[in-house]
Design goal:
With 227 residues, this protein is an alpha/beta fold. The protein has a domain of 65 residues. Helix content is 34%, strand content 26%. A six-stranded mixed β-sheet has the order 5-6-7-3-8-9. A three-stranded antiparallel β-sheet has the order 2-1-4, with helices on one face. The relative contact order is 0.21. The model has no long low-confidence stretch (mean pLDDT 92).
Length: 227
Amino acid sequence: MAEPLLTAEAVSRIFTTGAGDVHALTDVSMDVRPGELVVVRGPSGSGKTTLLNLLGGLDRPTRGRVLLGDGRELSALPERDVLEVRRTQIGYVFQSFGLIPVLSAAENVEVPLRLLETEPAEREERVGAALELVGLAGHAKQRPYELSGGQQQRVGIARALVSEPQILIADEPTGQLDSKTAATIMELIQDLTHARDLAAVVSTHDPVLMQRADRVVELHDGALVPA
């Protein structure tokens, strides 16, 4: 069995508020291996987004560790190194699509490559390949408002994959889509995970979408429970 590309070891996240401490996650441990689609399920407020933010390097745990496949502790790296990991090893898909309205589909997908200072010819080739991968080769010049919700999320997936990451994290990627479109997006994520040997973590509360998972983990009140 392949070694995990991403591991959480007893991670906890406590947020301090004026009303006291909020324990968003408590001692959560899990790992994700290449080619594996792991779905994190649980009701709203269960800690799904907090967990994905820790796994994706968008936040740091109060206790515990997040480890990459090369043995580095993501949660302890300097911020500049975390940023580099996020740019090169982790693709993130957001529920709200997160597209820049004034940019075309191709320009949105191109953003990570510009941050990596990729050469223009290579950028063009990789953007075209990413859009084709998600079935949007004919929509490169359209802006987000000219695309359906499902198409916008496909652009988001293309953007997440254009830098050829090892890890894909998607936080409620179908939350704003109708059930038929949501099923199509989850099928796409499943297919890409297996075809590219990604370590993919997707949060959802939709039981139909969980059928696409290789493994399901369940959160309640910030703790893992038997799924």
